[in-house]
Amino acid sequence: MRVLKDLFDNNRRWAARIKAQDPAFFQTLSQQQSPQYLWIGCADSRVPANEIVDMLPGEIFVHRNIANVVVHTDLNCLSVIQYAVEVLKVKHIIVCGHYGCGGIQAALENTDHGLIDNWLRHIQDVYRYHQAEVDAAPDKEARQRLLCELNVVEQVANVCHTTIVQNAWKAGQQLAVHGWIYGIDDGILKDLNVCTTGLAEISATHRLR
Q1: Are 155 and 72 in contact (CB under 8 A)?
Q2: What pTM was estimated for this model as a whole?
Q3: Is-catalytic flag, 160?
Q4: How confident is the model over 91-113, as pLDDT tens digits?
């Protein structure tokens, strides 16, 4: 155990601390997984889903990628959503972005970042849809913060437009999709007042008949 021994040491201390608080915790956890929440967030190391909402392992199902993007051809993300909705029967899907997102910042730059530029095209599409509003923001930081928020709103819509979520609603399943954003500088979550709970709340263009 010469490599990253400190992480193994941390793990043992963490496991011991959890077991001291609840001796049956890991045994119970190993026998079931029944979270009520799916968290779709950014891969940024400063945005740990469980810690932000003060939840233990087993209480929240998590998918993360650069800039919390939901793409209709991303089988990884779609598979997570399907498992969460159809198997785990989560009641809430939370799309959570964060201010100071590197992916958002990169999407606003006219520079070559390599392979990731292909992924950032999805965010640049969001910018294109709202370019007049974003460009009207008073400074660079304000533009980035606004695009962080608009990106969350767009990804909430993308989640709602999936066949998975729409079929769940058609079957009468209780499911709400939320849009939140996190402040790295203060640790506080902000509700963007985007919450969709049924087919009637999405655009007719994307609604399955």
Answers
A1: no
A2: 0.94
A3: no
A4: 999 999 999 999 999 999 989 99
